Amino acid sequence: MVLNDVPPPSTVDDPVYRTGVLELLGLLAYGEISACERLAEDAKMAPDLRLKVEIAAMASAEFGHFAKLRDHLVAIGEDPFEAMRPFAATFERYHQHTKPSDWLEGLVKAYVGDGLAADFYREIAAYLDAETRELVLETLSGTGHSEFVVEAIRAAIEQDPRLGGRLALWGRRLMGEALSQAQMVVAERDALSTVLVGGVDHPGMDLAAIGRMFTRLTEAHAARMEKLGLAA
Amino acid sequence: MVLNDVPPPSTVDDPVYRTGVLELLGLLAYGEISACERLAEDAKMAPDLRLKVEIAAMASAEFGHFAKLRDHLVAIGEDPFEAMRPFAATFERYHQHTKPSDWLEGLVKAYVGDGLAADFYREIAAYLDAETRELVLETLSGTGHSEFVVEAIRAAIEQDPRLGGRLALWGRRLMGEALSQAQMVVAERDALSTVLVGGVDHPGMDLAAIGRMFTRLTEAHAARMEKLGLAA
Question: Where do the Ferritin-like domain residues begin and end (chains A, B) (predicted)?
Fold first, then answer.
């Protein structure tokens, strides 16, 4: 949990906050279902059945996360597909721009994406009302399936050290693309941004705090790359 | 539950029975993971996000079934991937021969395959020891996700009645291909067949009983086709 920079969460009575949370849940839900879809796609490239099963387990966990978010949206009287619709283009663009050219790039993408999503969830959880926060943290709790990736990537680089350079470049591209899509979302969705940066009647992160959040996300990404044996 | 034709289940002390059960669990596990994989593939053809999510839910349920079978195999000291290996070719052949050419064919395949698998599980459960039977019936219990298919297929045929003929033909092909692969498995795997037909020291189905089982499976298939609005 991130405890610095955190003002008291906004109340659910605030209509801008409510809209922002709805957008946030739609964003997360689309992210999960699209991650599930891409992992299923990557599983086809798996060199053996064991690794295929590992990827399928991740895809299935992402589907479980999606189902939780969907059920919550239904429970609060919202149409989950309406809530997700505005974010389809963002994720399709991200995946379009980051098509793995082989199995190892797929693994790195799964690992980096999973980790970045989990970090982001933890960061924003602090700005949410208790119920939404619990949902978002629960959604996060199922990850950690991707630890097998570390072993697979390190073994591959040991066998062919030239891979390290290509995969490091790939990792930087993934992070760059993720940040660029995130920036577009923030620019386009006022209510969602307000959840993070605060509105006239409730506090949020100031620009310096947002800067620090990006620094933390970037540092965590670098740590993950190092764990894979890759230069960030 | 099928109660006719059922002798007392074999004991787990019989080494041929044990081998047969191991083969059976390997067969079921490969079937589940390969169904999961194909459903994920079909999900890409879904015309909208709602239907994509329905198919992803089925894929995720199949993965859950697979995980139960895998965990059981590990618990009884077997390597699940070794147990699955002999059946890879069977399922790859089946899927190779039954590639859906569009979304509707994918739906029919999911529905028909899900139903046939469930019927088969119920049929064989009666011949198994209590622990294995419970596992097999549990594996079965998660299905039923595919009911949305009925609605989708009926709606499509209502819009374009010519579809009915093509999809009916497709359904017959699926059943024919499944039976032909099943027959090859039985012919190749003696121990597995012995679980069903009995060995020197324990009873099983006689040929007439096997005939009646096939009749029941075929009738249930015809009933499913009718439910979809298709001639069997």
Answer: 17-199
